[in-house]
Amino acid sequence: MTGRLEAWRTCAAEVWAPTAEEMSALDHAAVEGGLAAERTLIEAAGRELAHRVAAGWPTGPVCGLVGSGHNGADTMVALRTLAAWGRDVRAIQGGSGPPEPEVRAGWTVDLESPEKFHASPPIGGVLLDGLLGTGATGAPREPQASLIERANHLGLPIVSADLPSGADPTTGVVLGACVRADLTVCFGWPKLGLLRYPARGYAGRLRRA
To answer: What is the DSSP-derived secondary structure letter of residue 104?
Structure first.
């Protein structure tokens, strides 16, 4: 793993397309090796996500679909950051609980239920997809599957955090519901599966952060 970290430092100009397992190992090595704290990686990813939303859609409300994992935490950081910049934000709980770790940092960004999202969906602005990350396997289960289907039919631009939820980040396979993103902000590198079909057709524009 040390060799891979050295390659990370010296080959910044190259675009590597890691598998989910490789990316997870690299994140783990970075944290264990003292290069970055886990919370620092989440804060950096979330703020970059907020910058990409602000650059592409500078006005209007932002609604985030928030999973229980790190992509959910990244999305909460993005929502908190956008709220600090004056945007109206909503957060919809799409997992079994709030994302780990707690990243609201004192900002009031309450998690709404999936039922509230279905009953009162956003009618404008941008959707942030932070439901599922590289650790998810198989077809999305409930409530994620219904949230994905609803989001896809709202006609709003969707920005996915790292990968469109429902796409396999290694194989590119789509087994069930999958977010149809307009933009996917890839953290570190675009995952290998996003360059393969059918996932490539769901990811929209790929931007590396």
So the answer is: -
Topology, domain 42-208: Rossmann fold (3.40.50)
* 24's tokens: 């997870």
Residues whose CB is less than 8 angstroms from the CB of residue 172 and which lie 6 or more positions away in sequence, other chains included: 192, 193, 194, 195, 196, 197, 198, 199, 200
- How far apart, in whole angstroms, are the C-alpha atoms of residue 114 and residue 121? 10
Q: Count of residues for the chain?
A: 209
- What pTM, to 2 d.p., does this model score? 0.89
Query: Do you find a cis peptide bond into 143, omega within 30 degrees of 0?
Result: yes
* Amino acid letter, 24: S
Measured at the CA of 191, the angle between CA 147 and CA 23, to 5 degrees, comes to 105
| CA distance linking residue 87 with residue 183, whole number of Å | 19
Give pLDDT tens digits for 101-141: 777 777 678 899 999 999 999 999 999 999 998 888 899 99
